[in-house]
Design goal:
283 residues, 5-stranded parallel β-sheet, alpha/beta, 7 strands, two-stranded parallel ribbon
Length: 283
């Protein structure tokens, strides 16, 4: 079962050593003879479920507020895009959006970034069909309406009215969509769909249901699903080619530094000023 999306700096493992490959990335691994295309049932989705699945209040008639969780990691292309996207949202939406995460506003528990918010921006590590993670689950658990960047067919799993899709490559349009949702009180209008998505998470997309689904798939197959080859685990591109390692490391360090200057430090400054304004005594 592949739980992490492929990235540009890591070679794929030889998954032919397994008789069955459960993955949402069927196009990436199409050379494998036995693929079950499915969202993977991530174990850490359920580690935090007990804390998340308490009876969160449904906030009504409160000022619309948006949260966003992100870190200052800027190694992979998608991480770079997310930081630039978050910067643009903060610049346009100002105090309507609060940004949490390492390098910005640290939190001890992820619930802190969802409690007391009507909306949240959810950005997955990749944009693929059939691939969604605990990021969208945590939004539904806490009854936040998600502005979503990620799984391209999320409506296959949750009601299409329970989220709004954003294009990370078109931040101006994303801001327009978000403002329109706030103006139309979409959080309250689509309450039943968010609660339905929450119900699906707790009853349909559980780890035990996922294992049963995989077992049924195996029993229905007439072909042999025994391992084909046995190989060692994958190694990163950076480890396998010394020259590639040197140049790619240099490129990554340079890109991280540039983003630290142009996006991360500027965003951190905005958040510090915002915190100072909130903590200043009123006259």
């Amino acid at each position: 079962m592949t739980t992490e999306p492929p990235n540009e700096y890591k070679k794929d493992a030889d998954y032919n050593q397994f008789g069955l490959l459960v993955t949402p990335f069927k196009d990436r691994y199409k050379q494998h003879p036995n693929i079950m295309c499915s969202n993977t049932y991530l174990s850490w989705l359920w580690y935090f479920a007990e804390d998340f699945v308490k009876e969160y209040a449904w906030f009504e008639n409160t000022p619309a507020r948006i949260s966003l969780i992100i870190s200052d990691e800027a190694t992979l292309n998608n991480q770079v895009k997310r930081i630039a996207f978050a910067y643009h949202l903060k610049k346009k939406l100002g105090s309507q959006i609060d940004i949490y995460g390492r390098g910005f506003r640290p939190i001890k528990q992820k619930q802190e970034a969802f409690e007391n918010y009507d909306y949240t921006v959810v950005m997955e590590n990749s944009v693929h069909s059939d691939h969604w993670t605990e990021k969208i689950a945590h939004a539904y658990y806490t009854k936040c309406f998600p502005f979503y960047v990620g799984c391209t067919n999320l409506e296959k799993y949750f009601p299409k009215e329970s989220f709004v899709t954003l294009d990370i490559n078109n931040p101006n349009e994303a801001v327009r969509i978000m403002r329109n949702a706030l103006d139309n009180n979409l959080h309250e209008k689509n309450k039943e769909y968010v609660l339905n998505a929450r119900e699906k998470l707790m009853k349909e997309y559980t780890l035990d249901k996922g294992l049963i689904k995989i077992a049924k798939y195996i029993l229905q197959q007439e072909k042999d699903l025994s391992p084909i080859t046995v190989t060692q685990k994958c190694e990163t591109v950076l480890q396998s080619k010394p020259y590639t390692y040197f140049f790619k490391q240099s490129f990554l360090l340079l890109r991280r530094k540039l983003y630290k200057i142009f996006y991360i430090e500027t965003l951190q400054k905005i958040l510090r000023q915002e915190n100072q304004t909130l903590s200043a005594p009123r006259r």
